[in-house]
Design brief:
Layout (H helix, E strand, L loop, with lengths): L1 E3 L13 E10 L2 E9 L5 E10 L4 H18 L5 E5 L2 H7 L10 H10 L1
Parallel strand pairs: 1-5, 2-5
Antiparallel strand pairs: 2-3, 3-4
């Protein structure tokens, strides 16, 4: 489940689910992504961050943050996940996986593959 809810507080998820709060930032000609992972009781599970040199599109970076988070979770055997993002455009792009017109298509397909 991927959601985009600006201006809301952290909400408890169902038991055995992991919540991943993703974000991206741009610094000149490079971008960075980061995620904080918490369990259903809001306990810290882990964190992830990565710098992408040469990528400065905020939407693409947010999609990459989602992809990297899904991969992080999969590598740790966590399949029940809620991803929260503040980038509605990135969330919308993930719904258009069959559209050949999206410049974000490959990164979106990577997200589906990781799932």
């Amino acid at each position: 489940m991927i959601s985009c809810h600006p201006y809301c507080k952290w909400k408890k998820s169902n038991a055995s689910w992991t919540k991943a709060n993703v974000d991206a930032a741009v610094f000149e000609s490079k971008g960075a992504v980061g995620t904080v992972f918490r369990d259903n009781e809001c306990r810290f599970v882990g964190r992830y961050s990565k710098i992408f040199k040469g990528i400065s599109d905020p939407t693409l970076l947010e999609i990459l943050a989602i992809r990297e988070s899904l991969s992080w979770l999969k590598n740790r055997g966590r399949s029940k996940v809620i991803i929260e993002s503040d980038c509605q455009v990135a969330v919308d792009q993930l719904g258009f996986l069959n559209s050949g017109s999206s410049i974000f298509l490959e990164a979106c397909r990577d997200c589906r593959y990781v799932l």
